[in-house]
Amino acid sequence: WGPRILDLDLLVYDDLEIRSPELEIPHPRMTRRAFVLAPLVELDPELQIPGHGRAREYLAGLDDSDILAIDPLEPETGFDH
């Protein structure tokens, strides 16, 4: 929870489940975060989160009203290219 050079969240990896002090797969809080689940469900509507079930079922129970779909190729999204 402190400063770090790189913060990489490994969400899922195939059907692998790991629970160790150094690594947890799937990500332990991903089922409570619409901003994580929404893009995953867009990429794979049938995605199964190992040990949990379908990602879209978790997403259906979360408020995702503040998540905006963007087109990275459109200049009005605010991204500089």
Strand order of the largest sheet: 1-2
Structural class: alpha+beta
Strand content bin: 5-15%
| Structural Rg | 15 Å
- Poorly predicted regions: none
H/E element order: EEHEEH
Overall geometry comes to globular
Report on the structure:
The mean pLDDT is 89. By secondary structure, the chain is of the alpha+beta class. It is globular. It has 2 helices and 4 strands, in the order ββαββα. A hairpin with a 3-residue loop joins β3 and β4 (53-54). The termini are far apart. The strands form 2 sheets. A two-stranded antiparallel sheet has the order 1-2. Strands 3-4 form a two-stranded antiparallel ribbon.
Question: Which characteristics define this entry?
Answer:
81 residues; alpha+beta; two-stranded antiparallel ribbon; two-stranded antiparallel sheet; 2 helices; 10% strand
Quick rundown:
The protein is α+β, with helices and mostly antiparallel strands.
Helices and strands, with pairings:
Elements: E1 18-19, E2 24-25, H1 34-43, E3 48-49, E4 53-54, H2 55-60
Antiparallel strand pairs: 1-2, 3-4
